[in-house]
Amino acid sequence: MSEAKLSLMELRKQYARTMQRRLGVDVVVPDSSRGLTQALASAGRHVGVNQLGVVRAVNSELAQALRVAPDTPLLILTRLRLVDNEPFFVNQIVTNQVLTVDTEVMESEKPLRQALGLEIPGRTRFVERSIEVVPADESLAHSLGLEPGEPLLKSGNLIVTDDEPVGIEYNYFGAYRVRFVL
């Protein structure tokens, strides 16, 4: 690098500026007590909701994670979050809990898990956290303005309250639109 007269710090700064231009959204979530939506709002970005979805489905793999019978019907709640009126991420909750879901809950600025009452301060933990790259299915691709098969960054965690799994949370981002720093 000395031949090119570039320092590592210079390269990092150039990379950060390139990523900011490419992503258009540059925020840092300082700790786990503040969510992405709060960080975006604090950075002056307008966060909204465009699509809401609620379906019942049977999925033995998800049921196993929730410690219920494989044929248990699960509630899958999906919310598309917009940043400055552009699709940014899809938030999804899978649960076997009995919930009241109305427009106010789905449009809340709170994380969906909080709006649904699945996260109780002091009693809720997040376990089995994961981040993986998955291909976009038709529905997610359409919601995020991508082509089916394009890579998504899928972050997930198991929501445990009072030592019982109460839900699984997933967030889906276009893989080329975000950068996670762990």
Please tell me about this protein's structure.
- With 182 residues, the protein is an alpha+beta fold.
- Strands 1-2-3-6-5-4 form a six-stranded antiparallel β-sheet.
- The radius of gyration is 18 Å and the shape is globular.
- The chain starts with 7 loop residues before the first helix and ends in an 8-residue tail after the last strand.
- 21% of the residues are buried.
Based on the model shown, name its key terms.
single chain; 182 residues; alpha+beta; 25% helix; 37% strand
Task: Summarize this structure briefly.
The protein has helices at 8-23, 36-42, 60-65, 103-107, 112-115, 138-144; strands spanning 47-58, 73-83, 86-95, 124-135, 151-161, 164-174. By secondary structure, the chain is of the alpha+beta class. It is globular.
